[in-house]
Request: fold
Amino acid sequence: MGGAGILIVEADVLVRHPLAEYLRDCGYRVIEVANGDEARQVLDSLEAAIDIILANVNASKESGFGLAVWIRANCPTVEVVLVGTVASEVEKAGDLCEDGPARSKPYDHRLVHDRILQLLAARDRAKDKE
Reply:
């Protein structure tokens, strides 16, 4: 499963960069962006190369929810993991992601990696059934 493309959408470089480095060390191709506009540009140019997006629910310019809605409509094969700290947002996330926000900040990199592995395994099982 190594080599999957991960897009991290997080404005806080002190949160984004360590997570990206950890995932790179795990063998993933990681692209880092600060906001939804940058994420859309990456997806428009590299959609096939991105398998999973980690997006901050509480982003200041556009919430991860807005980005997740756009992704579901425009890139349905890309998995979305919403991350954040606001408990009241869990119900909204349930409609966009199977498990709601998977992680809160600061991220436990191992737990984020475990969630990525789960999503990739589920995708591979679905492909095998086709």
The mean pLDDT is 80.
